[in-house]
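User: Predict the structure for this protein chain, please.
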Amino acid sequence: MTKSVGVHEAKTHLSRLLEDVAAGNEVTITRRGAPVARLVPARDTRRRFGMDHGVFAVPDDFDAPLPDQLLADFER
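Assistant: Here is the predicted structure, written as structure tokens:
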């Protein structure tokens, strides 16, 4: 559900609006009837250890010495 409120109401009732957003709703804040901001639920941005397990495999030659030309290119 999307709700629209004016700036004054948003300042006055911010705690209530945040409860609505935490419940999964969106709130559009308007100034003189024009939308200026949206309050939306925050995404979980934490990284979880092992979440990419199996996506990448370390090649067998990972620890092999680099070819001389490639080493020279890094030293330029």
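The chain has a mean pLDDT of 92.
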